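Ticket closed. Logging final result for MFS transporter.
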Amino acid sequence: MVDASITQPKKNKWIASASEISGRTWMGLFGVFLAVMASGVGENASKFALGDIQGAMALNIDTGSWLITCYVTGFVIGSGFTPCFWPTFSLRRVALVMCSIYLIGGLITPWLGDHYALLLTIRSLQGFAGGALPPMLMTVVLRFMPPLIKVLGLGAYGWVSAWSATFGATAAAFAFHWGWSGYFYWNLPLMAIATICIGFGLPQDPLRLERLKQFNWRGLLLGGSALAMLTVGISQGERLDWLNSSLIYVLLIGGLGLLALFLINEWYHPLPFFNLQLLGKRNLSFSLITLGGVLLIMVSLVNITSGYLSAIQGYRLEQTSDMMLWVSLPQLITLPIIAIICNTPKVDCRWVLAMSLLLMAAACVLASQLTPDWNGDNFRMISLLQAVAQPMAVIPLLMMATGGLLPTDGPFAAAWFNAVKGFAATAAGGAIALLSRQRGDFHSGVIADSYGSTYRDTATNSIGELTKLASNQGHVLASSDLYLLVSGLALLLTGLILVMPTRIYPPRSVAAA
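Final structure:
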């Protein structure tokens, strides 16, 4: 007898989870993702292409450096302070305004070469808008994505954060073929598409203008000034010789003083920008500390390697971008795999993070063996280790930072996470520049002294060649020292995992549980 009963096919749990939100909301999520990617890669592309931009705008090294400083300063302030505006004006409205500012700034920047003050103002506003977008991506993932696939959304956020640093050189090489203005224009079509998707897809929350009565004006003034002074001081520190410059001295000391006053104000204010009480959560505190260290490692690996290839091997932008692709492109495969692994309840994401830090340490130790004969091919295995290690670090950190938080804590967590991310990247760049110069000068001096009196009567042109040889070898040894220093930081953070964070589990709905 034939069984007439029909067994209903079991629906895939991932597809079922994704269908919990509408296609329109998915479009809004995609728009925020695209906006963050366009602004993040665009920022790093302009850093790699700064020399071409300075030449086209008739700016010298000193005046041209402020293009990056103003953008980065606006970025750090925007990432930390805009989340407080979301409950008041709605996430959708703020996102549309920031995308519009970025678009307009990118369109008019190439035409402002003869108006230097206005140029720096526009770059600051564009940086502010670019900094406001990453916290939005983190927040919309936490707010709208279903629990089962929320870790995949956090993985997408982590992918953009890690990818923008390494893909910037490739984007700059691509934009180069459009002329120097292409460095500002190439990502604007992406930002325009993102603006349309956000406007159509994100839900519109009601205005809550009554919050303006308690707005934290004192905190905005103190905190904004503190972050601006510290970011400018660090960004311009190497060029102006750090504390030997009265300007840098005032910026750093004054910024630290204002930061202390800002933190006191935040502790007592009913509507703070940064909820200091959240730092009592061990996992969030650990995530912020480790995030700063991981970003220093990631930025250092990019800066040290690209600096070595440029100074010793004479690599230009396109050659550097080809090498960076070995870090960025494999993450298209490794990141979703790591996200799926971390989304498994049996997997303790603390040990995924530990493995990531050990891989980063191994990459640094391998890179420390470099010689003046190394070229981009010698860094491929090191780049592949980075491509695996970076998502293994970012996804667990995001899970620990957001796990166990209330929905009302979302904007505060986004502010903390992204402000630390933006400031740590700037601090890492300043620290690497300072240490690279100091170690390079030290090794060059030792090598030059070792020549002794052998070349005392050597012709002037030969002395110049020996000086160049000492400088190049000093740069190689300094790069090796920095790789070892960064590997030590990775091992230190690995040890911190043993004592500070507690285990968390991937988010699940009640039905899924």
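The domain at 278-451+462-512 is CATH 1.20.1250.20 (Growth Hormone; Chain: A;). No further action required.
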